[in-house]
Amino acid sequence: MDDHYQDKRTNHSTDHIAEAIFTVNRHAKTAPDPKFLYLLKRKALIKLLKEGKASKKGLHYSNNPRFSQQSSDVLIEAGKYYFHMPPTKEDFKNLPHLGKLSSSYRNPKSSLSLSIAKEILQNYVGLKDDHEKASSKKQKYEKPVFKKLGETY
């Protein structure tokens, strides 16, 4: 195994964790089953906030409002990256509303693979992917049994 990748997996600096969250979030948007990826993102952001390594900047109107009603998301800054999360009631009371999301700002590019990003976040938050283990235990293929025409079981 390459030492560079091993360092990335065990490095818990804010920038590396933020880059891993960015990679997981980017893949979750197109994943067929994104639940675990979004859970990793949420747990990692909450832990960064608790440790003081990330900060809530304000509220943005959501680009994808639920039930066709206007809703807001919390803007969180972690390292060089910005993320959105659903707000709590306290967020509406304590954070300023920044209005519409600006399309002029983009997060920095990342070349981190999804598997390494997931491993970084799983190590950081102490969460294991049960879904991955379940899908690896595929059922053994059984040949179909055909009965002769007119035969019953």
Automatic annotation (TrEMBL):
Protein name, per record: YkyB family protein
